[in-house]
Amino acid sequence: MVTNIRSFQAGQCVAHLIEAPSGLILVDAGSPRNEKKILCQLKALGREDLKLIFITHAHFDHYGSAAALRRLTGATIAIHEQDVDFMARGETPLGSVRGRGRIAQVFLPLADLLVRPEPTQADIVFADGHRFIQFDLESTAVHLPGHTPGSSGLIVDNRIVFAGDLLSTTGEPHTQRYYATNWSQISESLDRLKALKPEWVYTGHGRQPLSGEELQRLEVSWD
Ligand SMILES: [Zn+2]
Ligand SMILES: [Zn+2]
Questions:
Q1: 3-class DSSP string for 53-85
Q2: pLDDT of residue 109
Q3: What's the pTM value of the predicted model, to 2 decimals?
Q4: What is the CA(182)–ligand 1 centre distance, in A?
Q5: How many domains does the chain have?
Q6: Which CATH number does the domain housing residue 206 bear?
Q7: How many secondary structure helices (H) and strands (E) does the chain include?
Q8: Does any domain span residue 223?
Q9: pLDDT by residue (tens digit) across 169-187?
Q10: Domain range spanning residue 205?
Q11: For residue 184, how far is its CA from the centre of ligand 2 (angstroms)?
Q12: How far apart are the CA of 137 and the centre of ligand 2, in A?
């Protein structure tokens, strides 16, 4: 059972610490050089037993501090099989970019030169439906592609989903509108997420979770 969820800014993305009696799961590891900040969040909970770092997708602001954090805590890193190679090469596949995302398309190669994300090998390479039984917490991966080929959510306790960058709660809740390797998959993944009927959805940007009702009302938004 999840006893607590702590969401916090870790560079550009919002990371989530899931507390359970048997250990902690971190959903997304923030931008590069955020490992100390994340460790402070563990300390604030009075715990050191980080077991799993679940990466929702291979973008630098979601896996950037994962390898450093693994060295500090011994946690294992998990990512979907279709994003594992991008992360291993330290890449960030932006796909086809829309609207304000075009700024990042120019900015990202420059940022890469300054703070290059560490190429990161995964310990667990999962497919849709993978259950993380070794962590003694009911948690299952759900493939939600579109933003990247391997974008995935984590379902815990059959009622809470961490959905990565399929959705954002920065400003009004909305679906991904800037970056996708496959835009048509965004609406399919939204349908898939709705069909799970979660009580709460946590996103990769924006600290406020989305309620189940808000999710059901959400339509695909194009900027
Ligand atoms: Zn992101
Ligand atoms: Zn992303």
A1: EECCCCCHHHHCCHHHHHHHHCCEEEEECCCHH
A2: 67
A3: 0.94
A4: 16
A5: 1
A6: 3.60.15.10
A7: 7, 15
A8: no
A9: 998 999 998 889 999 999 9
A10: 4-217
A11: 16
A12: 26
